[in-house]
Structures are given as structure tokens and as C-alpha cells.
Amino acid sequence: MSVLEEFINFLYGVREELKKVVWPSKELVIRASVAVIIFTFFFSVYLWILDLIFAKMISLFLTKL
Length: 65
Description:
With 65 residues, the protein is an all-alpha fold. The chain has a domain at 23-65. Helix content is 86%, strand content 0%. The protein contains two helices and no strands. The chain has helices spanning 3-19, 26-64. The chain is elongated and about 75 Å long. 0% of the residues are buried.
């Protein structure tokens, strides 16, 4: 079997597997995306606040030396 035939068989296999996929609805994709964006926003604010706190603590510690 040539490389081209193997590649064509692979593409047919991919096509058959994609027919079995249950794709999410548009509403589910939008809701999940909004949830991820909101979570990312709040987690980044949390990390930003922690960074400020630790930077201040290190600054205070280094000035005491």
C-alpha cells in the first residue's frame, strides 16, 4: 500500500469518526465561553491582588535589611 493510499484511508477514517461526534449546541458553546471568560477575569484579578501583596511584603522585607 502506498503512502497516498494510506493517507486517503486515514482521511476516510477521520470522516467516519467525525460522523459519530455529538456537537454541542450554539447556546451551550456561548454559555460555556461566557463562564470561562468570567472565571478567567476573576482569577486574574485574584492573582493581581496577590502579586501586589507579595510585592509589597518583599519590598518591606528588603528595606529592613
